[in-house]
Amino acid sequence: MRKRYKIGFTAGVFDLLHEGHLNILTRAKEYCETLVVAVTTDDLCKERKGCYPAIRFKDRCDQVLKTGYADIVVAQRNMDKVSLCLSLNVNAVFVGDDWKGTDAWISLERQLSACSVDVIYLTRTPGISSSELRQQCKGMYLRFDDERDGYTLLKYDGTDDVINVPNRLGVYPILQIDSQAFSFCKAKEICCGDWIEKIGNEAFWSCTNLESIILPEKLQSLGKAAFANCVNLKNVHLPDGVITLPSYLFMGCCSLKNIMFSQNIERICSNVFDVDSPCVDNISGVYVVNNWAIGAAKGCTTVRIPQGCIGIADASFLGNSDIEVIYIPESVRKIGAFCFDGSKLWDNSQSAGIVYADQWAVGLVDNSLSVHSLTLRNGTIGIGDMAFACCRNLHEIKGLELVRYIGINAFRGCVRLEVVKC
Question: What pTM did the predictor assign?
Answer without folding.
Answer: 0.90
